Amino acid sequence: MENYNHVFHDLETKIIELVENSKSLEELTEIKNKYLSKKGEFSQLMSKIREAQDKKAFGEAFNNSRKNIEEAYTNKFNKLNEEKLNAQLKAEEIDISLPGNNYFRGSENPFYKVKKEIEDIFISMGYTVETGPEVDLDKYVFELLNIPKDHPARDMQDTLYIDNNLLLRSHTSSIQAHVMEEAHGKPIKIICPGKTYRRDDDDMTHSHQFAQVEGLVIDKNITLGDLKGTLELFAKKMFSKDAKVRFRSSYFPFTEPSVEVDVSCFACHGKGCPTCKGTGWIEILGAGMVHPNVLKMSGYDPNVYSGFAFGVGIERVAMLRYGIDDIRRFYQSDIRFIEEFNKKVED
User: Residue 248 pairs with which residues in a beta bridge?
Assistant: First the structure.
């Protein structure tokens, strides 16, 4: 059998020397691509098999030489890879003798502080907290609340529709509609906190997304006096011990009579200041007696049962409570803003 080792010897020696002298995995890869790839210099020697008299011997010599090169390549690759790994481990070494990281207590967004406080106030009065879907049917958001289709009152609560019958709720009164439907004519005493959505331009006092806490009480012999007493107690606990409330006539389609509710200014105690624009009063919410039509549609006899409802914006209360000038601050996740509310504001 003819010996063809001499055909590959010189190039094999050259490649192995280059492999052993390589300083990095990248350099090693370049050598492999240059010489051992399909079109590499060493691989091209196989084309000379056509000229060999003993093609079997030529092929065996080629494979032996390639095997030697690949063995040298593998050994060098493993060595360089191990060196790289050791260097990486050393660079990432943790000195456990160093002092630990300092951890700081986070701050609660004033929105959630106020939301929780409002809930606690009404829970202390015997209310239960109810939640419901943010994406709801037109039936619950409008129709069961005495706002039929094409009613002009819908313009005040122009919201975001998914289709003709499904929409993002524009108030948490939709939760009240669900609860009344499921109560089957039994007494109710609930608050409904949650996000609401309306088609609105974002500015310092308006946002397309905001949150409300709405309340509903239905039972026998419920009067407007009960509503005023409830809201006055809420104002005293939320704003000031000497807070007073006043009612002004208003219109809401789901209440009759309807009222706008003002609280005496907690900054100047009714004397007049920039906070209350010199009036001594601050508007905080809307309320009223549940409309007889709403009671009927939910299975209540308005001749037997009566009730009141109210709704207050959580951001509105927080802005008044903490002197915040822009509603958008609640949603910007600015840690500098949130850190300002570490301390509890005392009465």
Answer: 260
340 contact partners, CB below 8 Å, separation of at least 6: 107
Q: First-to-last CA distance in the chain?
A: 106
* AA identity, residue 162: I
The span from the CA of 51 to the CA of 70, in Å, is: 25
Q: CA dihedral in degrees (326, 332, 334, 338; nearest 10)? A: 60
Least-confidence region, from 58-72, 157-171, 330-344: 330-344
**Is pLDDT of 280 > 80?**
yes
DSSP strand E in the chain: where? 128-129, 135-137, 166-168, 188-197, 209-220, 245-252, 255-264, 281-290, 305-313
The reported pTM is: 0.64
341 in helix, strand or coil?
helix
DSSP bridge pairs for 326: none
List of residues 6+ apart from 1 with CB closer than 8 A: 54, 56, 57
CA distance 52 to 331: 80
Tell me the one-letter amino acid at 158.
D
Which pair of tokens denotes residue 65?
Answer: 């030489």
Structure tokens at 71: 């063995």
pLDDT by residue (tens digit) across 85-106? 888 888 888 777 777 777 777 7
